[in-house]
TrEMBL record:
Membership in a protein family: Belongs to the WrbA family.
Enzyme Commission no: 1.6.5.2
InterPro entries per record: Flavodoxin/NO_synth, Flavoprotein-like_sf, Flavoprotein_WrbA-like, FMN_Rdtase-like_dom
Protein name: NAD(P)H:quinone oxidoreductase
Organism: Marinomonas rhodophyticola
Molecular function terms, GO-annotated: NAD(P)H dehydrogenase (quinone) activity
Length: 200
């Protein structure tokens, strides 16, 4: 049986904001016909040799496999901004993709990024850049958010032309503003449409 094309929504979320963004990006993807969203997360990593996470997550999306990444038609990747960079668990997952790089499995597939930070200038755009860099090495086609999305102009919270973002004023603030939700859905819709175009 042939698998339906999908956009992989891959993320790490420590306090829930990025997981919430992933849901809205998936909604945007699922508004496009002939493609679907596959939502996956990455496990925690440890600074010791102990096992940091169970084989299956206690809650939320399943953990991603390299095969799911290899077989995707497009990739939306998300992380909280940690000092202007992606979180270690996501970087650890990407660092395991050398076999996909050697075989060119991700070449010419579209990718985009999304992030959350607790301050207005907490490195959202730089975090998206940190996720973009290894994907460019994989030969992926990076998509930002064009200003035809008026929420980019109107937002007083998250939102960048580099990719969707969320301003979480406190650690446990996972609720997105209406503008942030709209930008996440617009980003999901855009990557789904591009994935279909690039498959033809």
């Amino acid at each position: 049986m042939t698998q339906s094309p999908y956009v992989l929504v891959l993320f790490y979320s420590r306090h829930g904001s990025v997981a919430e963004m992933a849901k809205h990006i998936a909604r945007g993807i699922n508004k496009v016909g002939d493609i679907e969203a596959k939502v996956r997360q990455v496990p925690e990593v440890s600074d010791t040799t102990k096992i940091a996470s169970p084989a299956l997550p206690d809650a939320g999306a399943p953990y991603c496999t390299l095969e799911e990444l290899a077989d995707c038609a497009g990739l939306a990747i998300g992380s909280p901004s940690y000092f202007g960079s992606m979180a270690a668990p996501l970087k650890h997952f990407i660092d395991q993709t050398s076999t996909l790089w050697l075989t060119g499995r991700l070449i010419d597939k579209p990718a985009c990024g999304f992030t959350s930070a607790s301050t207005m200038h907490g490195g959202q755009e730089q975090c998206i850049h940190s996720m973009m860099t290894p994907l460019l090495h994989h030969g992926m086609v990076w998509l930002g958010l064009p200003y035809k999305n008026k929420e980019l102009i109107n937002t007083t919270a998250g939102g960048t032309p580099y990719g969707a973002s969320h301003l979480a004023n406190s650690t446990n603030e996972t609720a997105l503003t209406d503008d942030e939700k709209a930008l996440c859905e617009a980003q999901g819709k855009r990557i789904a449409e591009m994935a279909i175009k690039l498959q033809k």
